[in-house]
Structures are given as C-alpha cells and as structure tokens.
Design a protein that fits this description.
Strand order of the largest sheet: 4-3-7-6-5-8-9
Order of helices and strands: EEEEEHEHEHEEH
Largest sheet: 7 strands, mixed
Shape: globular
Distance between the termini: 27 Å
Strand content: 25-35%
Helix content: 10-25%
Structural class: alpha+beta
Radius of gyration: 14 Å
Number of strands: 9
Length: about 160
C-alpha cells in the first residue's frame, strides 16, 4: 500500500504499483468510442500509462496535454491515459483540447485500479486512482513505475522520457 497526500491528508492506495522488471498486469479499459483497450493491443510497443484521478482537475488535464505534446515524437510508443472518468467526458476534453497523440481510456468497468495497486482505498478520493505513470517495455515488462507523492503534483515528465 502506498500513501499519497491530498489537501493535507494522507490517503492510502489498495496496493503497490508493479515493480520495475515485473510483468505488467493485463488490463482492459474503455476508449472514447466505447471500445475495449487492452495491453495486448499494443504488443511489441512501449506503453506509457498516465494514470490520474479525473480529467476535470487542472493537474490531470495538464498531464494529458503534456503527454500529448511529448508523445508526438516517441518511436514505437503509445501513451494511454487511465482514469475513472466516463469515456464521454474524456472524449469531450480531448476534442476540445485537440488531443490526438494519446489514447484516453476509462477504467469505469474494470479492475485496473486494483490490479495496478493505484486505486485509493480511503478518504475523499476513495474509488478514484492516484496519479502515477507506468512505462511498459515491448516485452510487457515494467521499465518505470512511479506515484506522485501528492495528488496535486505533476508526473516527472523528463525522468519518464529519459527511460524511453
């Protein structure tokens, strides 16, 4: 279990992120067209999972914008965002913002948060997911795995891109 700060309170996740070197858990999320998205869909590619609580917050929205901008130049790599937002909200945001270099997905009907240990177990964010990034290599193993210590903190973009 990990601890994350939110508005001066400590929140706990249901588990821990997959460790570097470990096989990434398979997942199924839903894209903005209500189609299933799985890890297997990206076999042979590097996958950056940008996980966050909600697209309707400034930091979460900024992380999607930033990965969209930086993802354009990444070879053999796909960025998949994962949140509990409904696909309709994700589609509305991506359309309004011109987001086209990331795959926005919802975990609203999956066990992604539990399988990746990133779902909040308690507090006002219970049921949502913490902010974290997991980079999966072409062979399905975890190359990078990190949670931000505070919900209001952006991911370490440069550190993540250096791994890639």
């Amino acid at each position: 279990m990990a601890t994350i700060e939110f508005q001066g309170k400590t929140l706990n996740t249901v588990g821990d992120l997959p460790a570097v070197g470990q096989a990434a858990p398979e997942f199924t999320t839903v894209n903005t067209d209500l189609e299933d998205v799985t890890l297997k869909d990206y076999a042979g590619k590097r996958v950056v999972l940008n996980v966050f609580p909600s697209i309707d917050t400034g930091v979460c929205a900024q992380s999607v914008r930033e990965f969209n901008k930086r993802a354009a130049g990444l070879d053999n790599t796909v960025v998949v965002t994962v949140s509990m937002d409904l696909p309709f909200a994700l589609g509305r945001f991506c359309g309004a913002e011109g987001i086209d270099n990331v795959v926005a997905t919802s975990a609203f009907r999956s066990s992604f948060g539990e399988d990746y240990g990133i779902k909040f177990a308690d507090g006002p964010m219970k049921g949502l997911m913490a902010r974290g990034v997991i980079v999966i290599d072409t062979d399905g193993s975890v190359l990078y795995s990190s949670l931000t210590p505070s919900v209001g903190e952006e991911p370490a973009y440069d550190e993540i891109l250096n791994v890639l």
